[in-house]
Every structure is written in structure tokens, then in C-alpha cells.
Design brief:
This protein has about 400 residues and is of the alpha+beta class. It has 12 helices and 9 strands. It binds flavin-adenine dinucleotide.
């Protein structure tokens, strides 16, 4: 048995070039994007630059035009991309497309791969993933699913409301989780944005501000889709959700770790320069504690992430491991960015210093892809079963 944390020359090469690209090409555009908002024009501009820099979609299969990296290698590269809130979008490894690319790769039919996966990996289209519903529908408890798919002549008719659906506005396709009206089982279906029975009905005004298309309310009103719109097999929706969610929550960890590292870097640079009460801030004990705690949280989060990503690369489903990692890392990155804000003083709360923007954007990560409480509940249940 050997523990080997060394990186291959190819991973090191991509990591260094991604770092350079984020510093030289993405970070200089951040302030105008914070002011003007992020749209598909900016997405296309950044994505063309990333493609030209040959750092395109590190996590996607190489036969589709991606980097073809293993999942544990992607952990290094997506952290690097995450140093800017727009980095993952530029490299086409941002949520929700990155998770949908993975799902379609694993369970999509050949036809679905041709129609949706190829253009998604190429960055020609965007997608969204629609699971959450307004109360009393599916949220933390997916079994409350209320959106219905009825079998009709030649296909299915979908009805129901979803909310908080990231990127739905402007997405070409939405992967919707619905309940088969006959069997009661959850089924995933692909619905094109121009389907006459489908529409985006509004946007939630959330505290984050850097996702293209925002977080949308959407409605299916007897939306008819043909039989081949079922993703994989009917009735397998919850199983496919697991296929998507374990890796997707880890790729979120990767990107947010990069964002937290950036906030910490900004804070430390400021502390080195800032003189207060006759000393630099880095010489004050209470500031030192925050700086040290950030380093400890960063290192612990990265170690857990690398180990869990390695498990997935080795074929483990990683259900419990990814829950553990998601809880620890989502809370650790929150602590890191919160300390960074504190160390930066008043300007730490602003977009100008970027730390404030990261602080607002990172908060929801403790809620989506399973709230901390839900993961803790499922970890505790599994542990209890082992002792029964
Ligand atoms: C920025 C953002 C982007 C999102 N993007 C998407 C998307 O693209 N697609 C999508 O389908 N959904 C998306 N969501 C929705 C997200 O998945 C849900 O918000 C999440 O699953 C929680 O569901 P809920 O909001 O209905 O909260 P509820 O289910 O009402 O839960 C509320 C709170 O209850 C607590 N809780 C839950 N279970 C327990 C328990 N067992 N014990 C103790 N406390 C508990 C938790 O603290 C939880 O936050 C997004 C959300 C946000 C904030």
C-alpha cells in the first residue's frame, strides 16, 4: 500500500496554465461583471479564451473534447479554476452544466449524447437541472416530489412547478425530475426550452450574483415530450440523482475551495500591509489566529476532498464519504471566507475587494446539494446501522 499525493506532469501543467489564465484573463474582468451582471455574451467571450488557452473542460471526456482527467485530478484543476467566481464558467466546469455533462455521459442514450451532451461540452448550449419544488414539494426530502409525468400517446405529458433552478433562463434544455403518474416512481426527462408547455416564470432574488441565468421558477403545463426524452430508463430517477449528486457535490467543493483560498490570499496580502496600533496586522495575535485557522481549514478541506475524489476515481460510489466531505468543506469554506472578511475590515464586505462577493456567493453551498443537516442525518443513520 502506498499513499502518493504527487501530481502527474500533465496535471501540474494544466494547473499552472489555469492559474495563469485566471490571473491574466478572468480576474481583470471581474469588477465589470459584478457591476453589469454575467450573461451569455461574457460567458462566450471567456469560454473562447479558455479554449484558445487549451484548458477546456478538464473534467469532461477527451473523446468529447474535454481534458479527460480523472476525478481526483479534476480536484486540483477545479480548485484552481474556482479562484475566480467566473473561472469555472470560463473553463466549462461550472454548475449545473458540469453535473449534467457527467449525468448524460453515464446514463444518456446515444441519441441524447449526440443531441445534448456534445453541444454542452462544446459550450454551444447551457442546461439546467430541475429537482426542487416550492413547498410542500421536493426540497430536502425528495420523496415529496409533486411534478407529474403522465404516459400519453407517443410519450409523456409533464405538469408541475419547480423553483431555484440555476441557469434555467437561457438554457437550451432542462433535466426535470418528475413522478410517473402510474408507477409513482421518479423519472428524469429532458425538456427542450422551446417546448410549448414549458416556461420560465420568474427569478429568485438570492444573495449570490454570479450564475448565468440566475435561479429560476419554472412551470410545466402538460408539456409533451416523446418517449426518447426519458433520460436513461423510466423509474430510475432517484438512482440517477445519486449518480449526479455525489460527484456534483464534490465538484462544488473543488470550486468553492478555490474561491475560499482566493479570499484568504486577499486577506493575508492586506494584513501584511495594514499597520494598526503600531504593528502590522500579521503581528497581532488575534489576527494571527484567524490566518492560521484559515490555513488549517484549507489544508484539512483539501485533504478530505482529495481522498474522497480518489475514492470516486477508484469506482467507489462515495455516498457516505461525499456526505462527510460536503458537510465539512461547505462549512470550512464558509469559516475561511468569514474570517477573510473580518481581517479585511469594512472593505471586506464589498465587491471591490472581491471577498465580500465570495462571502455572499458561498453561503448557499451549505443548503444546496443536501443541507448540512440532511447529510448529518444520513451519516448518523448509516453509522447507527453499523452498530445495530
Ligand atoms: C443558490 C441555489 C441554487 C440552487 N440550484 C438548484 C438547482 O439548480 N436545481 C434544483 O433542483 N434545486 C436547486 N436549489 C435548491 C436546493 O437544492 C434546495 O434549496 C435544497 O435542497 C433545500 O430544499 P428547500 O429549499 O426546499 O429547503 P427545506 O427542504 O424546506 O429545508 C429547510 C431547512 O431545513 C433543514 N433541514 C432539512 N432536513 C432536516 C433534518 N432532517 N433535520 C434537521 N433540519 C433539517 C435544513 O437546514 C434546510 O436548509 C438551489 C438552491 C440555492 C440556494
Amino acid at each position: 500500500m502506498s499513499f502518493d499525493f504527487s501530481l502527474s506532469p500533465r496535471v501540474e501543467d494544466w494547473r499552472d496554465r489555469i492559474r495563469q489564465f485566471i490571473d491574466d484573463t478572468v480576474i481583470p474582468r471581474e469588477q465589470s461583471a459584478f457591476t453589469d451582471g454575467i450573461d451569455d455574451d461574457l460567458r462566450r467571450t471567456l469560454q473562447k479564451a479558455a479554449r484558445d488557452a487549451d484548458i477546456w473542460a478538464p473534467q469532461a471526456a477527451s473523446e468529447l473534447g474535454g481534458g479527460g482527467f480523472r476525478f481526483d485530478e479534476a480536484a486540483v484543476l477545479l480548485e484552481e479554476a474556482g479562484r475566480s467566481l467566473f473561472g469555472p464558467l470560463a473553463l466549462n466546469c461550472a454548475a449545473p452544466d458540469e453535473g449534467n455533462i457527467h449525468l448524460l455521459t453515464v446514463v444518456g442514450t446515444e441519441g441524447q449524447k449526440e443531441k445534448y451532451l456534445r453541444p454542452l461540452v462544446a459550450g454551444d448550449i447551457r442546461s439546467s437541472f430541475a429537482m426542487t419544488e416550492p413547498p410542500p414539494g421536493a426540497g430536502s426530502d425528495p420523496s415529496a416530489l409533486r411534478t407529474i409525468a403522465r404516459r400519453v400517446d407517443g410519450g409523456w405529458a409533464i405538469s408541475g412547478d419547480k423553483h431555484l433552478i440555476t441557469g434555467a433562463d437561457g438554457a437550451a434544455v432542462v433535466i426535470v425530475m418528475a413522478r410517473d403518474a402510474d408507477s409513482g416512481k421518479a423519472t428524469m426527462l429532458l425538456v427542450d426550452a422551446d417546448n410549448p408547455g414549458y416556461r420560465v416564470t420568474g427569478h429568485a432574488r438570492t444573495i449570490d450574483a454570479t450564475m448565468v441565468g440566475g435561479h429560476c421558477q419554472i412551470r410545466f403545463d402538460d408539456a409533451f415530450v416523446t418517449t426518447d426524452a426519458v433520460l436513461g430508463e423510466p423509474g430510475e430517477g432517484f438512482r440517477y440523482a445519486q449518480v449526479r449528486l455525489a460527484p456534483a457535490r464534490l465538484t462544488h467543493c473543488m470550486r468553492w475551495l478555490g474561491a475560499a483560498r482566493r479570499a484568504h490570499e486577499i486577506a493575508v496580502r492586506r494584513c501584511v500591509e495594514r499597520e494598526l496600533f503600531g504593528h502590522r496586522l500579521t503581528e497581532h495575535g488575534m489576527a494571527q489566529q484567524m490566518i492560521a485557522d484559515n490555513e488549517i481549514d484549507l489544508a484539512a478541506a483539501r485533504s478530505l476532498l482529495w481522498h474522497t475524489s480518489w475514492l470516486l476515481s477508484e469506482g467507489d460510489k462515495g455516498t457516505e464519504a461525499s456526505s462527510r466531505a460536503k458537510v465539512f468543506i461547505s462549512e470550512a469554506v464558509g469559516r475561511i471566507v468569514d474570517r477573510a472578511v473580518q481581517l479585511c475590515g469594512g472593505m471586506g464586505t464589498s465587491d471591490d475587494l472581491v471577498v465580500g462577493r465570495i462571502y455572499a456567493d458561498i453561503r448557499a453551498f451549505r443548503i444546496y446539494d443536501g443541507a448540512s443537516e440532511v447529510h448529518r442525518m444520513s451519516i448518523a443513520k448509516r453509522v447507527a446501522r453499523r452498530y445495530e
